[in-house]
Amino acid sequence: MSVYTAVSTDELAAWLARYPLGELVELASIAAGIENTNYFVTTTRGRYVLTLYERMPADELPFYLNLMAHLARAGVEVPMPAADRTGALFSTLNGRPAGLVARIDGAAVERPEPVHCAAVGGALARLHVAAQSYRARLTNRRGPAWWRQAARAVRPYLSASQNELLAGEVKFLAGLGRVRLPKGAIHGDLFCDNVLFTGTRVAGIIDFGFAATDFLAYDLAITVNDWCVAGNADGSLDPARVAALLGAYSAVRPLTADERALWPALLRAAALRFWVSRLYDLYLPRPGELTHAHDPTPFERILRSRSGAAAALPSDG
Asked: For the domain with range 9-102, which CATH number is right: 1.10.3210.10, 2.40.30.170, 3.20.20.70, 3.30.200.20?
């Protein structure tokens, strides 16, 4: 959500003419995140988030935007994409594919309590259930093949200890992509900053830029690694938050025996994916007007914690 592609008010006003959304009132850049260019947009008829997709090929955008529309229609807490007068959900703005989604009122929670974790677990399960009727498929572009490529690229920047951890985890997880677990459309990045709350209620799940077709339990592991660690400097999981999140999730979509058996490996895979991603963005960044690379250190700690001890599911999770 850094600003890589600048958009002026005149440029946006001209682009907005294709939408039945009224006249432009205000444009404000969003300077957090690392993947795309985002702006808050206010028109005479509503409030929206404008995204210019910096890395995503235009032929992949229908998967993401139609998924969001599908989930919103199913009642999942997801912002509805805005269609232009032709029904299209995106078009080109300043050389980038761009689209609008409804802006959701709410705020992210930096230090989630079990009640927030339970709300997120339930929302994620509803997302996964609704996504089962979404027919489009898209290979995860940040899957195991990317882990291996990115790991090779960042090794020159790492210490001997870090390289040992990286090589060991890549080897350990080499066959994970070939196991048979329930699959479907996943969010792929359901961190605390991608969920907006009103009180203790989930108001909206945002930022579907890493959505893909992958293991549902892997998506759950990504979520647990962030929501149930916040505040634990050593990367360890907080049992109360884990129980709340997994309990609420399982009440909507119970995990299979295979998912439960592979849970420790899925947590390690989720930790490795984000450690490598953050290393890559730190050491091999792209130029941008405003950029913010996440610190990879927390996910190194999370990965060391997950690889050092099996994190079994709660008996009622």
From this structure: 3.30.200.20
CATH number of 114-308: 3.90.1200.10
Sheet of 24-30: strand order equals 24-30, 37-43, 46-52, 96-102, 91-93
**pLDDT 10s per residue in the chain (317 long)?**
456 899 999 999 999 999 999 999 999 998 765 678 999 999 999 999 999 998 888 889 999 999 999 999 999 999 999 999 999 999 999 999 999 999 999 999 989 999 999 999 999 999 999 999 999 999 999 999 999 999 999 999 999 999 999 999 999 999 888 899 999 999 999 999 999 999 999 999 999 989 999 999 999 999 999 999 977 889 999 999 999 999 999 999 999 999 999 999 999 999 999 999 999 989 988 765 445 678 999 999 999 999 976 666 776 44
Residue ranges per domain, the chain? 9-102, 114-308
Interacting residues of 191 by C-beta distance below 8 A, sequence separation 6+: 222, 223, 226, 227
CA distance 303 to 178: 21
